[in-house]
């Protein structure tokens, strides 16, 4: 698709979600009187919030879609396991630190590592089945 055609396509619902996230993060960051510096910092905070949202939710959604596209179901244990491990990691981190930010950070990285381990185990399992079959 040519670049010119990409700009002519309609906005998708995901773009609306990202706009809402940006506006909410900017509003959250703008809790002080609106001076030029505070507004600039609020916009930077909104962009940072959007970046974190896009990185985390976008990657988790891509994981779910790719799993489904390969014939898996969203109720399969290999799909659910990284989410369960991430929830446990987030809960444990929150109990240990009482920090929502630390719990979110731990949940993301626990999910990423657990998903990588599940992918590696599945890859090795399929390889051994093909070699012995």
From TrEMBL:
Protein name according to UniProt: Uncharacterized protein
Transmembrane stretches, start-end: 12-30, 42-65, 77-96, 102-126
Domain of life assignment: Archaea
InterPro entries in the record: MFS_trans_sf
Keywords: Membrane, Transmembrane, Transmembrane helix
Naturally occurring in which organism (per UniProt): Halogeometricum luteum
